[in-house]
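quick one, 60 residues, struct below
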Amino acid sequence: MASAAAVTYAGRRGATLRFLASRQIIEAAEVAHALKVMQQHEARQAAGRTIEAEAREIGK
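---
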């Protein structure tokens, strides 16, 4: 039969592993969101550059 200390240790270990796993999931979601925002920002900047280049050619 397991001692109370072993059960407590196992419970704490399991809780710690669940906590660490949840932190990794949250961090992955934050990184995915940041990447999406960065790509959207870059796309907007690229679209603006295209419009500026076309305006310069029309003005020639």
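Helices lie at 4-59.
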